[in-house]
Amino acid sequence: MGKKYADALKLIEADKFYSPKEAVELVKKTATTKFDSTVEVAFRLGVNPKYPDQQVRGALVLPNGTGKSKTVLVFAKGPKIAEAEAAGADFVGGEEFVDKIKQGWMDFDVCIATPDMMGLVGRLGKILGPRGLMPNPKVGTVTMDVTRAVKESKAGKIEYRTDKAGNVQAPIGKASFTEEQLLQNYIALADTLVKVKPSGAKGQYIKSVTMSTTMGPGIKLDVLKANSDK
Questions:
Q1: Cβ atoms of 211 and 27 closer than 8 Å
Q2: pLDDT tens digits, residue range 13-63?
Q3: Predicted TM-score (pTM) of this structure
Q4: What is the rounded CA–CA span in Å between residue 165 and residue 178?
């Protein structure tokens, strides 16, 4: 444990569960890195993702973005190529990018595809899938509306999904964000998770919430106030 981490840990009361407003005030003070740390939130949900009716997956555009500029690759053909380029995509094409990715090229953060390109993109499932980059209609990355998909990705769209243990972890901004910006982003994510509660989820849905910065200590939130702006 480094000195900065130890000092940050002293700011957090071990047995206290903080309100979202208190948590964002505290998380900025506990950033321990020289670079602009990412602020992340981890939700432990009362779901078992093994069952189709208990899976949680989707995407949303954070009100204040993520603080990170994303590089976007679009698989498209015909008029959709010009549309993607006009929307601000960094790379647009087809077969040539399949070959590049197979050779190890991964200089992008988001991968979008039109439905008619999925036969081609499907060849990359074993490469893109484990990295969370495979285009998927559930999160809006398989679509004919490439303009919207690209602009949302550039504006701060994040994806969320439960892991095998039922946890959802996602970024809500940077330590340099204002408290209000972080709180607004957090509430947007928390509200979304509440709204997409699966039909098969029984009992307590949000079991725990923890907020932290990159390499910083975790701050436990009061689950009863999980989507409150107080």
A1: yes
A2: 989 999 999 999 999 999 888 899 999 999 999 999 999 999 999 999 999
A3: 0.82
A4: 32
